[in-house]
Amino acid sequence: MLSHQSAAELWKLVDESSSLIHVTVPSDRRVKGRPGIAIHLSRRSSCAVHPARNPPRTRLEETVIDLWVTARSLDEAVGWVTSALGRRLTTQYKLREAVQARSRLPRRGVLAELLSPDSAGIHSVLEYRYVRYVERPHGLVGAKRQVRIRRDGRNEYRDQLYAEYGTAIELDGRLAHPGDTRWNDIRRDNAAAAIGITTLRYGWTEVTTSPCRAAAEIAKVLVSRGYSGVRACSPDCPVGRQEARAQPTSPRRDEQATATCRVPARAARRARPRSRERPAVHARAAESSGQC
To answer: How far apart are CA 60 and CA 84, in angstroms?
Structure first.
């Protein structure tokens, strides 16, 4: 049966064709290799094959997990999962079932995190990197992902939306913006601004090379609108300045501190002797003892 990249082409998981034809056979069979054909052995080929599709191929979820296993990098592995979810070819639940059927799986912890309910709505590698390196380490939680908004009779989706704080985050992994796409983005941002939503846009470079700086910019906007959950990921993280602003000193605490400071002064006035020569001695003693 066809598997890996060849099965992915049939499932419309990729747009480009592979230079090799990938075939999976039972592990107890011995097949002679041929040029242009990549042969994979599997003990669970009978469970992985789709029961009805022709030509025979691995099930969609099995295909995604196979590609996760053979991915050369974490970004490539994440890309297969987010592509399947973003194209609405499968669901987190179905992929979790496929994962549970595998006894050995590389990067299982990362995959479990990616398929958790908290990661619902992550549809690209860039969105995954944003959540992992910008959002969660800096306490920028609470945004809803892939929020559908109706505009001019058409559906639009916001990558991240802090509805309570009127802030939207848009992530774009494209290296260049064609003219039509750029103006579509501008119109979307203008329409959002008209209803009180501020849009911040970040690309691959900002998220991957300076996540703390991006987090600090987002935190500054959210804190100005009442958000108080930001935190620095390290002592040098610029988000720390916004964290301090998000935790103002309580006025009641200020009053208590002022009252505490005044009590010794009252007590000192009550304890002043009637003689005019003694206060100077008491004043010097108070200064040396550090009293208010």
So the answer is: 9
User: Which three-class secondary structure string do you get for 238-258?
Assistant: CHHHHHHHCCCCCHHHHHHHH
Tell me: the pLDDT tens digits for 212-264? Answer: 999 999 999 999 999 988 999 999 999 987 776 666 544 444 444 333 333 34
- Rounded CA-CA distance 37/20 in Å is 6
Each residue's pLDDT tens digit, 157-176: 888 999 999 999 999 866 44
Domains of the chain: 1-120 (no CATH), 122-248 (3.40.960.10), 253-289 (no CATH)
Q: Could you tell me if 64 and 82 are in contact, meaning their C-beta atoms sit under 8 angstroms apart?
A: no
| Close Cβ partners of 202 (under 8 Å, ≥ 6 residues apart) | 130, 134, 169, 170, 171, 172, 214
Identify whether the C-beta of residue 242 lies closer than 8 Å to the C-beta of residue 223.
yes
Contacts of 112 (CB under 8 A, 6+ apart): 99
CA distance 291 to 271: 14
Distances (CA, A) of 270 to 259, 285, 290: 16, 16, 18
Interatomic CA distance for residues 287 and 283, integer angstroms:
6
This prediction has a pTM of 0.71
Find the helix or strand (DSSP H, E) in which 162 lies: strand 154-162
| Number of neighbouring beta carbons within 10 Å of residue 158 | 21
